[in-house]
Specification:
The complex is a heterodimer of chains A (about 350) and B (about 230). Chain A is mainly alpha-helical and about 350 residues long. Chain A has helices at about 5-25, 60-75, 150-165, 170-185, 185-190, 190-205, 205-215, 220-225, 235-250, 295-310, and strands at about 265-270, 280-285, 330-335. In chain A, helix 7 (about 205-215) packs antiparallel against helix 9 (about 235-250). Chain B has helices at about 1-10, 15-20, 25-65, 70-80, 85-100, 105-130, 135-165, 170-230. In chain B, helix 2 (about 15-20) crosses helix 8 and helix 5 runs antiparallel to helix 6 (about 105-130). Chain B is rod-shaped, with a radius of gyration of 29 Å. The chains are: A mainly alpha (about 350), B mainly alpha (about 230).
Chain lengths: ~350, ~230
């Protein structure tokens, strides 16, 4: 080993030590890879969504609270009236975005059985049903139904409601008031689901409430991100379908069919009025028709149509009535599945 | 408790942490590869320094040589140098003196002997210069395999751990695999510079050999010409 090699050895050892130290220092803290977004809840539904329900933004969870507040602010510009209710709302949501949603449910439930609020886009709805059945309880209800996640959605729906002659103004003030109260009552909200379900059951034997619970937006970050609530996503459609099914069920008389006739699924094309009345119901297709049950198709179709017409008007979320792009339950195709009606 | 510590360790990518977690066999592999890497760089650095110096001094020596009036005197002055060109030069002069000492010399035989003597001197110098390069070649070709051995061993051990804990969660599997892969990383870390260095340095040696050969040829032709006038 001559001098050059000794030098080389010294340099090499020093360089390796430095590299090792650099790697140790630099890599140690980088251990944790933070998740860019919280996991999204996935719900299996039998429909293909017309609109993507996936979160639009990359980092949903963190921005959820902000977004909630923002949509409201942005919403008011189009409509001067809503701004008033909006300001009160934002405050409560910001401090405690999550607790708010739970509250609304318990409230509405005790006073009124009408569960439409529970639906994904409850805002517009409440005003409608309320005036008809019980004018007074209305105000409290509308407010509670709102959920944090859905606020944006609400805002959008609100516009249509205002434009309409009915309860716009009443609803607006009502909203503001309840909102305030809502924030104040965070404590009960801690167990949102449990309370909500209990209340729903107590108040009314209606299954719709229960069903709507499933349809309601959970706390999932994914929902919070989709303020464009008025668009029908797969979940909403599934919710609508199950809501219709639940309301139609009592009116369905099982026809005396033959073997396999209960497997015939009639696809009904329903045109409905804003009040839930069914203006026309026609069969546009079938599923599950086999040579065996072919003879009973007509019978099953008639039974299905009869059931729907008999149970009209249907109570469905008003804000999904007409979402503008041809979706909504003003004109909806409903798969009437006899197997679900027993 | 254990799972916590595992996940904590798994979270660290520090080479030292990876080394400390490793199995004894993998540790040996890692130490060997690290030593190989240090040795590789030692050779590369030493060789580059030496080659640069030798090339420069060689250039000067040859320039001076071609300018020299009297070869005998020049040899007496610089023939003892350790430079490769000087060695070739000294070998040629020594052979020349021995051959021309004989009155009845065979010119053709003398030329061949001169050529052979200087050729072997060139080969000798090249051998000396490329002394350590075979180590680089060895490390370059074997390093990845040694690292791979460490990885295979580490992964085998990880699987044994999985079987023992009956737990296939990533928290159990990942640290072992990470540490095992670290062995391969070390193997590549040692082998890549070794291969690059080997190629570069071999190229330098080849150039040096070509220059020495040219110098030997030039000197040989000079001596050969002298031989014509030798009586």
């Amino acid at each position: 080993m001559d001098r050059a090699e000794r030098n080389g050895l010294g340099i090499a050892i020093v360089a390796h030590a430095l590299l090792l130290a650099a790697l140790s220092i630099k890599l140690m803290p980088s251990a944790k890879i933070p998740l860019k977004s919280d996991p999204m809840e996935v719900q299996l539904v039998g429909e293909i969504g017309l609109q993507s329900a996936a979160p639009k933004s990359e980092a949903p969870a963190q921005s959820a609270a902000r977004e909630v507040a923002k949509p409201e602010e942005s919403a008011p510009p189009p409509e001067p009236a809503p701004p008033q209710p909006a300001p009160p709302k934002p405050q409560p949501p910001k401090p405690e975005p999550k607790p708010v949603p739970p509250k609304p449910e318990p409230k509405p439930t005790p006073p009124k059985p009408t569960p439409p609020k529970a639906e994904p886009k409850p805002k517009p709805e409440p005003p409608r049903p309320e005036p008809k059945p019980t004018p007074k309880p209305v105000p409290p209800k509308p407010a509670p139904p709102k959920k944090e996640a859905e606020k944006p959605a609400k805002e959008a729906p609100e516009k249509p409601s205002k434009a309409k002659p009915t309860p716009d103004k009443a609803a607006a003030p009502a909203k503001a008031a309840p909102d305030k109260s809502a924030p104040a009552k965070p404590a009960p909200a801690t167990s949102p689901k449990g309370e909500g379900s209990k209340a729903g059951k107590k108040t009314s034997g209606l299954t719709l409430d229960d069903i709507m619970k499933g349809v309601k937006p959970e706390k999932s970050p994914g929902k919070a991100q989709t303020p464009q609530g008025a668009k029908l996503d797969a979940r909403s459609i599934a919710g609508l379908a199950s809501a219709i099914a639940a309301q139609v069920k009592p009116c369905y008389q099982i026809p005396t069919g033959g073997a396999g006739s209960e497997r015939i699924v009639s696809v009904l094309d329903l045109r409905m009025g804003r009040d839930g009345s069914v203006s026309s119901a026609s069969v546009v297709g079938h599923l599950g028709v086999t040579p065996d049950n072919q003879p009973y198709v007509q019978q099953m179709d008639d039974a299905a149509k009869r059931a729907v017409l008999r149970c009209a008007p249907l109570h469905l979320p008003a804000d999904l009535y007409d979402v503008g792009d041809g979706n909504g339950w003003n004109h909806i195709q409903f798969k009437f599945t006899p197997a679900q009606m027993n | 408790m254990e799972s916590i510590s595992i996940s904590h360790q798994a979270a660290t990518l520090s080479p030292i942490a990876l080394f400390l977690q490793a199995d004894i066999v993998v540790k040996c592999v890692m130490i060997g590869l690290l030593a190989a890497s240090i040795w590789t760089w030692t050779i590369i650095i030493a060789h580059v320094i030496k080659m640069r110096k030798v090339a420069k001094e060689n250039d000067r020596f040859e320039r001076d040589f071609w300018k020299a009036e009297d070869i005998e005197k020049y040899h007496d002055a610089y023939g003892r140098s350790n430079l490769p060109s000087a060695k070739v030069f000294a070998a040629g002069v020594a052979e020349w003196r021995r051959s021309t000492a004989n009155p009845a010399m065979d010119r053709e035989g003398t030329r061949q002997r001169l050529s052979t003597a200087m050729g072997s001197a060139v080969a000798n110098e090249v051998d000396k210069l490329s002394d350590r390069l075979n180590i680089l070649a060895t490390i370059g070709s074997v390093g990845p395999f040694v690292g791979l051995f460490g990885t295979v061993w580490g992964i085998m051990r990880s699987f044994t751990d999985i079987a023992a804990t009956q737990n296939t969660s990533l928290g159990v599997v990942a640290p072992g695999i990470a540490e095992a892969l670290f062995a391969t990383a070390l193997g590549l870390f040692a082998a890549i510079p070794a291969v690059i260095g080997y190629n570069r340095l071999t190229h330098g040696i080849n150039r040096m050999e070509a220059r020495l050969t040219r110098f030997a040829d030039g000197f040989h032709s000079t001596l050969s010409r002298e031989l014509e006038f030798e009586r």
